[in-house]
Specification:
Strand content: 15-25%
Distance between the termini: 29 Å
Number of strands: 12
Bound molecules: guanosine-5'-triphosphate, magnesium ion
Shape: flat
CATH topology of the largest domain: Rossmann fold
Order of helices and strands: EHEHEEHEHHHEEHHHEEHHEHHEE
CATH architecture of the largest domain: 3-Layer(aba) Sandwich
Structural class: alpha/beta
Largest sheet: 6 strands, mixed
CATH superfamily of the largest domain: P-loop containing nucleotide triphosphate hydrolases
Length: 349
């Protein structure tokens, strides 16, 4: 899974990236200098995995992972024909979701205007999508007049998208369009799930800045610079600092967790002496497909899934006890895997 960190120049994208990943990527000093994107893979925190690991004491514990990309640069402006926009778009298209960083701290001569910045960014993304839609519509209509038959469903969806975008409505609010396999290839920016991240200055109180996110966009407020500085400390020092500041839960953990949920992902677990591991799959995945997340052979040779719910396993105290209590079920290929299932796949190839 790839999540793009986007936002106006100087909104604190790299700061947030550093806070999430604990890295020390160079800050730009708000001149919007074009640099290579920053990439990092981070582990999705999950208490259940930690407890399973304590139960099995395996050689290795493996978390689910998400890749964060700080794309740098600024706003995709598809109406201007410049190379940096093309480059930015090329980076953004493959993202599964976005974190839109909005500045809630003053810069010299530039007071914080989070609502305006957010609106402007949304409008620019909508315009970028609108241009993509209109180019495609033009081509389809030409083909139709030449006697070729375009896909009428695609045409209809594109017209709906055009209308929504003309009203500055993001495509993420229209699931029929956002989830359509016909339109997947366009990778519309406003169709991607998005989190609004209000990046608040150290000296402002959290929760007092009025801001209204667009429909369907969850809001998270973080003191980005402070979180970055703590994330860069040694763990013991960070702990002391957090206690002093009464910021026990790193806000970034919340962000990582919600971006996972936003993507509609759930986790199942595999357990054993060698490895305890979390696997991420989309909701409503049938058992054989879930097995495919581990290895295509297990999907191909799928026989049954031996399943125990995480809570049942913990309540029983051990796998053996859960079995004795009748909590370990055998499920077939129709079974839809649930969040927290602990699974042992039986297969033959
Ligand atoms: N007060 C305050 N300053 C911040 C915060 N986050 C970032 N800054 C400052 O804002 C400036 C820009 O931060 P960056 O993280 O480089 O912003 P960016 O969005 O990556 O900038 P570009 O890559 O140029 O678009 C730096 O001088 C940061 O120190 C914050 O939470 N509070
Ligand atoms: Mg940056």
């Amino acid at each position: 899974m790839k999540i793009g960190i986007i936002g106006m120049p100087g909104s604190g994208k790299t700061t947030i990236f550093n806070a999430i990943t604990g890295s020390s990527a160079e800050l730009s000093g708000f001149q919007g200098a074009k640099k290579d994107p920053n990439l990092a893979v981070i582990r999705v925190p999950d208490e259940r995995l930690d407890r399973l690991s304590a139960m099995y004491n395996p050689k290795k514990t493996t978390h689910a992972q998400v890749q964060y990309v700080d794309v740098g640069g600024g706003i995709p402006k598809a109406d201007t024909k410049d190379a940096s926009t093309d480059e930015l778009l090329k980076m953004l298209r493959p993202m599964d979701a976005m974190v839109l960083v909005v500045r809630n701290f003053d810069l010299p001569g530039l007071p914080a205007t989070p609502q305006e910045d957010m609106n402007a960014f949304e409008a620019d993304m909508a315009l970028t999508d609108l241009i993509t839609v209109e180019k495609r519509l033009e081509r389809l209509e030409k083909e139709v007049t030449k006697g070729k038959k375009g896909d009428p469903k695609e045409l209809e969806l594109l017209r709906q998208a055009q209308q929504a975008l003309n009203n500055n409505q993001a495509l993420r609010t229209l699931p029929e369009i956002a989830d359509s396999s016909l339109l997947k290839g366009y990778a519309f920016l406003t169709a991607k799930p998005c989190i609004l991240l209000l990046n608040t200055s150290d000296d402002k109180e959290l929760g007092i800045t009025p801001i209204k996110p667009p429909p369907g966009v969850p809001l998270i407020e973080i003191k980005g610079r402070l979180e970055m500085e703590i994330a860069q400390l040694a763990p013991e020092d960070a702990q002391i600092f957090r206690e002093e500041l009464n910021m026990l839960e790193p806000a970034t953990q919340r962000l990582i967790r919600s971006s996972y949920e936003l993507l509609g992902l759930i986790s199942f677990f595999t357990v054993g002496e060698d490895e305890v591991r979390a696997w991420d799959i989309p909701q409503n995945t049938p058992a054989p497909k879930a097995a495919g997340a581990i290895h295509s052979d297990i999907e191909r040779g799928f026989i049954r899934a031996e399943v125990v719910a995480y809570d049942d396993l913990m309540a029983a105290g051990s796998y053996h006890a859960a079995q004795k209590a009748g909590k370990v079920r055998l499920e077939g290929k129709e079974y839809i895997v649930k969040d927290g299932d602990v699974i042992n796949f039986r297969f033959s190839v």
